[in-house]
Amino acid sequence: MANSKYEYVKSFEQPDVLLPNTWIVVRIDGRGFHKFSNKYGFEKPNDRRAIDLMNAAAKAVMTELPDIVIAYGISDEYSFVFHKSCTLFDRRSSKLVTTIVSTFTAYYVHLWSQFFPGVPLSPPLPSFDGRAVQYPSVQNLRDYMSWRQVDCHINNLYNTTFWALIQIGGMDAKSAEKELAGSLSADKNEILFSRFKINYNNEPEIYKKGSVIFRDYELVEPGTAGEAIEDDGAKTTEQIKLSKTQEENDKKRRAKARITVQHLDVIKDEFWERRPWLLSNRPGKIPKEP
Ligand code: ATP
Ligand code: ATP
Ligand code: MG
Ligand code: MG
């Protein structure tokens, strides 16, 4: 770098390195998507095209950033999880967040016409905000994922009932809102079933559970690889570091793995027990081609 008298300005930059050995979650959220969804006539309560587009953009982000172990999306938001051993960008928060936000947004716009053919985008174009949050334990990380999935359930049950009252019941938005004020889950299930013959349990999983994206390896029988989920919180970062060759091998296997979008329960232990690679960050076996 050439020396100049102006160079001192670089020292005004603030460090923003995230703590070592913590799970990093970058959550992005669409800006003003309530308005955006009206502008493009999203079907209510759930526009399948819009969800598929979010998932496609998130999948592209995971492909470009192999350090992401799992992602979870609902509505106009996506959470991307970096393993606690991740060293990408030396764990600098703004580098991680801005890279994810811009990569996601670029793909969202790039892929838009595939999911909304004949509906061209016009300004204001879609944009996303983002933040990084650190979780010190596997329990905190899993609670984070559970929090988002419970939010998905609560919002979807509300929205499904709200829109049934309007679309099938002929109510206006104000009356529907009033009708649902203070209602419990059981009340909403009852309204759906008794008035509209809708059994909420039979609603599509993609709407009830949201979308989870991860690298797919052979599932593990619960109980046979319990040690893989062990929390190595007691080890030092040095001890956790893998040998260079092992790291290279893992990298190759990770690149070979198929990235899958599913709509599973991430709250139950089973999801994590059958996929020990998510928490261990050691790639599993690549399934044989069917
Ligand atoms: P902010 O900029 O504060 O995030 P917002 O308008 O984006 O404001 P959110 O709380 O993020 O508010 O909610 C996103 C909104 O986008 C939802 O309430 C819903 O109206 C709409 N939306 C997002 N995805 C879909 C979808 N797949 N189908 C229908 N509507 C959707
Ligand atoms: P910000 O202005 O910082 O973006 P926000 O209101 O958009 O805040 P997020 O932090 O993006 O909220 O949170 C995402 C979702 O989490 C919200 O749509 C809401 O359902 C839920 N949420 C937000 N704040 C709380 C809270 N204090 N307690 C429980 N749930 C919350
Ligand atoms: Mg939003
Ligand atoms: Mg949102």
Automatic annotation (TrEMBL):
The keyword Nucleus does not apply. Binds 2 magnesium ions per subunit. Residues 139-268 form the Thg1 C-terminal domain. Its cofactor is Mg(2+). Keywords: GTP-binding, Magnesium, Metal-binding, Nucleotide-binding, Nucleotidyltransferase, Transferase, tRNA processing. Its EC number is 2.7.7.79. GO terms for molecular function: GTP binding; magnesium ion binding; tRNA guanylyltransferase activity. Mg(2+) 1 binds at residues 29-30, 76. GTP binds at residues 29-34, 75-76. It catalyses: a 5'-end ribonucleotide-tRNA(His) + GTP + ATP + H2O = a 5'-end phospho-guanosine-ribonucleotide-tRNA(His) + AMP + 2 diphosphate + H(+). Residues 6-136 form the tRNAHis guanylyltransferase catalytic domain. Mg(2+) 2 binds at residues 29, 76. InterPro entries: Thg1_C_dom, tRNAHis_GuaTrfase_cat, tRNAHis_GuaTrfase_Thg1, tRNAHis_GuaTrfase_Thg1_sf. Belongs to the tRNA(His) guanylyltransferase family. PANTHER family: TRNA(HIS) GUANYLYLTRANSFERASE-RELATED. Adds a GMP to the 5'-end of tRNA(His) after transcription and RNase P cleavage. This is tRNA(His) guanylyltransferase. It comes from Amorphotheca resinae ATCC 22711.
